[in-house]
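Ticket #4471: structure export looks truncated?
Reporter: QA, pipeline team
Priority: medium

Steps to reproduce: submit the single chain below to the structure queue and open the exported record.
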Amino acid sequence: MRFLFFLLALPCLAQQQVVSPKGTPVEYVNIGVVGTSKGLITDQYGQFSLERLSAAPTDSIYFSHLSYKRKVLLSREIQNKIVLQEADIQLPEASFTLQKPKYYTIRGKGIPAVMRLYGEMKDGFEPTSERKYLNAEIGDFLSFKHDARLTELSIDVHRSDFYMAVLRVVVYQTDKQHKTFTPLLKEPIYIEVFPSREPQTFSCKLSVFVPKGEAWVGIQFVEMRGKDYDKFVFPSTINTCYIRFADGSIRPLNKRLGIPFSVKGYDYIMTNE
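Actual output as written to the record:
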């Protein structure tokens, strides 16, 4: 009955929408209260309800999306339509001639472990939950001795009860201290996970240039819809992965386990090497 009540009450919340300068909806925009871990994400139509953030009138609210410039407004200034300006993303490019590429697995899925890693709707993916999984990223830091190009990402899901679960592939250039994260994807790549109690594998074709050095590669939870105790479950591996929250904090997954995802690609070799 509680879930039915929630569905009936939802239309009573005021709805706002994030749009582009052309008036088209901007899907899956990250929205949060500056300086806190409170956050939510617009749906596929760019719609959201500010009331779900429980923000004070003087709170600063940020709007962030890979393809658009970050925008910050006071809560009391937010109108029904929020317009985001397109970002001028300058991606790094190879400045040398590539020899015949040798494709290889840059990161394997790891050695399976017995445990499962999961998050629940009420306890993890609701905007008000303490665990703050919505908008968080799970991934790994990869070191590249050469400039490289990523060509494929594959990930295994053990089970999903959610009637809607959308993940976004994330690739960032970062420093050794993992303080700065520069996006290397110009356009978002989404993975839609279907409700199933059977294991599923999802593979995405990529074409992402990664400069020599450190990179962060993984997935982000952008839209999760289900009943209170619905679960999203990953198999686990003994290869450690990390979770990066919307507030920038990073920690290893529980018991320093990982999720099974792999990355394939090739290195760029300069002609003078």
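Status: closed, not a bug. The export was complete when the record was re-opened. Leaving a note from the reviewer for reference: The chain has two domains: 11-83, 104-267.
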